[in-house]
Structure formats: structure tokens, C-alpha cells
Amino acid sequence: MLKYTGHPLVDVGAATIAAYSGRRDIGSVTESDLDQVVRYLAGNYVVNPLKSFLTVAFPNSGFTNPAFEKTPEKRVAYAQRVLTAYRGASSSSGERCVFTKDPALDVALSDAIPAGRAYRQHIPLITGEGIINFSPNGDAGLAVSGLALLCIQALPLGCAKCGGKLLAVHSDSPDLTLEVAAEFLKYNLEAINLAQQSGTSKLREARASAKTLLIETLIDIEQRRRERLQERRPASVTAYHFTNSGQSNPLDRNSPLEIYHLPLEVTEFLSWVTSPDYRDEWRKLVQRAWRLAKLKKGKEPREGDNGDGDSRPRLNFLYEDVFRLPEGARWFIRRYFVRAPIRSRFDDDPRRSYSLQGESDLVSWHLTELFLKKVMRMDDERIQEIRNLGDRLATHILRDNGKRFFRGLFENRYDYFRMNLIRGNLSAVQQGQPPLVTFDPYVAVFEDGYEIARPDWRLARDLLLIRVVEQLHQQGWLRSNPDAVPEQRPEDEVESERVDAEQ
To answer: CA 280, 281, 284, 289 torsion: positive or negative?
Structure first.
């Protein structure tokens, strides 16, 4: 009966119907299930808090039209017409639904529009009635089937409300699309019940900003999958953070539609960090990335408070930065694995105070190696060469208490960095030790040719530092020599603008 179309609005709506019916796939949804969903929507879309909530998805529709406040029977009649259109006959005109290719419905969704046509008040993000621009032959509106229309009407319940907009999550994996919709549906149903009991007209916002919520939800789902010993192949994810409100300014940073994409290599990495082998190391990084509280002037920000009495912040900078991957992988490594601070004008940004001096316990080669393999697809041989070199350098530093040599590993000029390694090599050989660095491995890691540094030599330097710092921390050397770590100067944030914490 229901089927996926590849269009996120229809697919997420279909997944929401299946989730509400307790089905594990949309193909098993029955006519009785649809009737149950229609009863719930018809009874709740015409009253608050959903009546108010639906202005985000269906403004100027019969659900939200202010003119119906004094004639609620018109709102009920509209709900019945739109939600039960799938029960009627198909159009005899030969028109096909643009989503499902099924015959378009033979019902007019209002007295003023032709049968089988839907507009902005019925389907988000398309044009309104009478607007012929971008319509074939000036024929405005979209031909739609009754089932596709019902799925789109159910869509808001399978979305998260974030920053006054809806967050719909669509994946290459139908199972994942349904699981996320089910998660958001559960939260919304609880919020609806609370609002009805308290008599409020507003539906509460999701517990986090859009990007943070998306990553949290994906990780929670993956964690439950592992606990159930359920197999699933990683899949890419695309989220649509949108509003259908006509009050949005397309030139404003809060545009009507923002699209967040997580490619396969990133979702695979996120699935791995939920495993017992990586979970604790990952959670430590996440904990240190939560937005700090906004306190009164003269007081220091603190972790774990969003400043309004709620102990849970709404935004996690690490989760937000995941959406820069894989293109921003080198920046991500430097920020979160090397703990390099940024220069930010926002007091609540915890990344301003990142430092190896006080956070060497967060440095993990184990987690970095996973990132290199899954996100960056780095060659295993190069990874192993960097690890082996890091082990040799750490051993040399421990043996000679080589503070100066250790500081030289932080050099940003390639010629200075290479000279430091040459001096370390000479020192090791003079003491009767084997060379720290040999020609072939060094060239493979740092150079493209004779005295020509690889374009990504700083990445290799950062990875080397990660391994060295981890080894020195485990041996207690950094704790005994805190002055050995040079002060890391904050770097400019590469974002063009800050993501609003309430988004």
C-alpha cells in the first residue's frame, strides 16, 4: 500500500505512519492502520498544540486558517477532506502523482482549486495557488495521489521541532529513515500529551539544536542496534531543516531550507564510535565540547549548563563540526584530537580553552586511527609508519628527558621541523642507539620528492604528535614535565558564521 518514493517529504511521512502503527516497514501498513492514523490526525490537527505547530508546515491551510477560529466545523471538514482523500476515486483525467506515479486523486482539496491539485498549504516548499512561475504550461500546483498526500500530512509528527523549523531525516537505508521518524514521533506524542494536560498552545522544542540532535539521535539508534545485536550496513543521511512559513527571508541566515548531509564514510565512523572499543574515548571528547553556560558578567562559564537552569546544553560543537567532514577532516583532527584551541569571540565556546597541557588524557591514537581509516580512507601502510615513528620518538624523549626535542615537534615551518628530527637522529646515533628516522619511511610520510614537503605534511605532523603525546601521557612524563608542552596559540575559527545555539 505505502511505498518509498525517494522524495524525503513523502518517505519520512510514510515512515511516520508506519511508526505510529507499530510497523517495522511501510510495506506492512494496512488499511486499518491508515484509518487509525487518520483518526488521530483529524482529532488533533484541528486543536492546539498541533494547530499552532502546523503553521510551520501548512500555513494558510484549513488546519491553521485564522478565519476558521469562529467556525471550527470548517476546520474539521477540511481535515476530513484532505486526510481521507486516499479513499476516493482516482482521477479520470490521466494525471499521475508526481511522487508515486499513481493516478492523481479525484478530489478538490478546497472549493477554489481544481481536483487532484495540491499547493503550498498542502505540500511544504512549493508555490501557492495561482502562481504560474516554474509550472509547466503555466499549470500551477502539483498532481498528487491520496496516499502521497496523507504521508505528507503525517510528516510533521515524524520531524523534530528545532528553532521554529522542522527537521526531517532521510536515508539511503529505509530502516534508518523509519527509526529516526519513530524517535521523533515518540518525542512529539509525549510533548503533545504534556501540552494538552497543561493547557498550553505551544509544542515544546526538541532538546537540542538541529545538527546536535541529528548526531545524538543517530548515535542513540546505533547504540540500541548494537545492544540488540542487529546487523545493518552504514548508509548516508540527509536532513532537511525547513519551514514553510512565508515570513522567512531567503537572504537571511535562517533560510526556509537548510540541508545537512552525512556521507557514508562519516556515518560509518559514527557507528563505530558506539562500540565498546571506542565508546569511552569518544564520550570524553563529546563531554568537553558542550556549549558553556552564559553567566553574568564577572563569572566564569562552566560546562554542563545552558544558562537557563537546564543542566543539559542544547549545542555540542563536536557534533556540529561533524558536518564539515570529510572535507574538513584535517581541521577536525587538529581541533579535537590534537586539542588545538581556536580564537573565538563567543565566551560560551569551549574550544577556546582546548590545550594539550591540561587535556593530554583526551589524546587517543586508537580513536584517531579509526578516524583515519573510516573518514579519510588513509592508506594502512602510512598510518603504521606514523605510529612506528611516534613510538620511536616517544622512547627517545623518555630516555633523554628530551623537552627541547619534544617542543620541536610542534614547529609549523617544515625546514625547522625536519632539522629538529635530524638533530634527534644524530643524538640517538651518538648514544649508540639506532636512528630515530630512516630515509624511506620519512619520505613516505612527509615528502613528495627531494626536500619537497608533502602538501599535507602538517597533517602527518599532527598525527605524529597524537601518538607521541599519548605515549608520554601513559608513561607519566607529561605530568612530571608540564612545562615541556609549548603554549598553543589560538587559531582563527574557519567558520564563516557561528551556528546559533537555539537553531
So the answer is: negative
- Write down the pTM of the prediction: 0.89
Tell me which amino acid residue 82 is: V
Query: Which residue segment(s) compose the domain that 55 sits in?
Result: 8-157+176-199
Q: Is 262 exposed, middle or buried (0-12, 13-18, 19+ CB in 10 A)?
A: buried
Amino acid at 44: N
Asked whether the beta carbons of 272 and 370 are under 8 A apart, the reply is yes
Cell of 106: 479525484
In this structure, what C-alpha cell is assigned to residue 355?
590545550
Tens digits of residue pLDDT in 310-335: 556 889 999 999 999 999 999 999 99
Within a domain: 229? no
How big is the chain, counted in residues? Answer: 503
Type of residue at 177: T
CA dist., res. 422 & res. 426, Å (int)? 6
Amino acid at 318: L
Q: Are 500 and 209 in contact (CB under 8 A)?
A: yes
Higher-pLDDT residue of 113, 374: 374
Q: Is the separation of the CB atoms in 233 and 222 below 8 Å?
A: no
Nearest 10 degrees: CA dihedral of 23, 28, 32, 33? Answer: 30
* pLDDT tens, position by position, 99-133: 999 999 888 888 888 888 899 999 999 888 777 66
Asked whether residue 264 is domain-assigned, the answer is: no
3-state secondary structure of 242: strand
State the Cα angle at 236 between 25 and 145, rounded to 5°: 45
DSSP state string for 414-458? HHHHHHHHHHHHHHHHHTTPPPS--HHHHHHHHEEETTEE-TTHH
Total structural domains within the chain: 2
Cis peptide before 441 (omega within 30 of 0): no
> Count of CB atoms within 10 A of residue 173's CB?
16
For the chain, what is the largest distance between any 2 Cα atoms, rounded to a whole number of angstroms?
A: 95
Long-range contacts of 214-218 (CB under 8 A, 24+ apart): 214/167, 214/169, 214/239, 214/260, 214/262, 214/319, 215/270, 215/316, 215/319, 215/322, 216/316, 216/319, 217/169, 217/180, 217/183, 217/184, 218/180, 218/262, 218/267, 218/270
127: cell is 508555490
Rounded Cα distance between 465 and 460, Å, is 9
Cell 619520505 sits at which residue? 443
DSSP secondary structure of 334-373 = IIIIS---EE-S-TT-GGGG--HHHHGGG--HHHHHHHHH
Q: Is 458 inside any structural domain?
A: yes
Identify the domain boundary among 137, 168, 199.
199
Q: Is 350 part of a structural domain of the chain?
A: no
Alpha carbons 196 and 100: distance in angstroms, whole number: 36
Report the C-alpha gap between 346 and 303 in whole angstroms: 14
